[in-house]
Amino acid sequence: MLFPSSSSQKLLPARHLFTSDMSAYSSPEERILSVPVIQILVALCYRFVSTTGKVMEKRKLRGLSSLLLLAVTYLVIWIDLFVPIGANASFPGPWFGISIAKNLIRIVLLLLVGHFFSFETIPSFDSLFPKDSAIVRSRLFPDAMEMLYGLVIGGSAFGIVVACSYIMSLLHYTNPVLQTMSHNALTPAVFLGSIGLSLSVGYSEELFFRCFAEESFGNLSFPPYLAMACSAILFGLSHGAQQLGGMVVATLLGFVFSLFKRNSKSLHAIALGHAFYDLCILLLTFNL
To answer: What residues contact 77, with CB distance under 8 A and at least 6 apart?
Structure first.
């Protein structure tokens, strides 16, 4: 997330999601996926679930089975965490499109896993696409209060990390991800890409760490706050590219996000807060 640099006072994005293979870009026309595309992806998954649900019975995993599912899902969904960032990597428009697409795939996979293994904190397809939308409100989009609360969450996270950044600067901490991204200019394409990337990261990370991982630890019979702490530690360890200082601050923020989620009971609020925070950091990181 946000961390200081001894050679730069700019701040850092939540997690890297970067790959060193900069030759795998799609065409510029494919770089940004819009909301209708998200709806199509989820609708296709809903169709798949509705046709396979009669064959595949839902299961609620407990104990070691829940831990194994968490480990396998983590490795599959966040495999690019183990790919190093190039020292002189650049982040043009198509890179944002690829990153957004990866996060959309993560969201869809988590929705499917949540459905098949009966995760209560992951939205069901019925809640996203109710049969009678005139009676039951769809949870696909946030309401005004969730968006407002998201701003509060994002602002709080930003304030916490600013304080942490000051402490880190006294320790002469240099963030390698910040150093890499600060070489890129803030162009209109980068600005739009940053918005899409922040939203996709916010929802994919909150679905996994604050919903899937936290409930998985709860299925091990962990008390609620211990499950929140374990999820936050996993979140922090996932920021290994930002070195020890980055992992410590990410762990702190992960626990703070869990506290907000416990209070709000809203995935939209916490995901939008995370996205708002990420966007602020991205805009501060790129060269103006």
So the answer is: 106, 109, 110, 204, 208
Quote the CA–CA distance of 65 and 259 in Å, as a whole number: 26
Cα–Cα separations (whole angstroms), residue 224 to 227, 258, 266: 5, 10, 17
163: enclosing H helix or E strand: helix 144-170
Q: What is the pLDDT of residues 81-92, one digit of tens each?
A: 776 655 555 666
**5 phi and psi, to 5 degrees?**
-135, 140
Q: 185: which strand partners? A: 287
- The answer, as to whether pTM is greater than 0.85, is no
- The model's pLDDT over 204-234, given as tens digits with 9 standing for 90+, comes to 999 999 999 999 999 999 999 999 999 999 9
Nearest C-alpha neighbor of 18 from the set 102, 121, 134, 126: 102
Decide: 233 and 199 in contact? Cβ < 8 Å: no
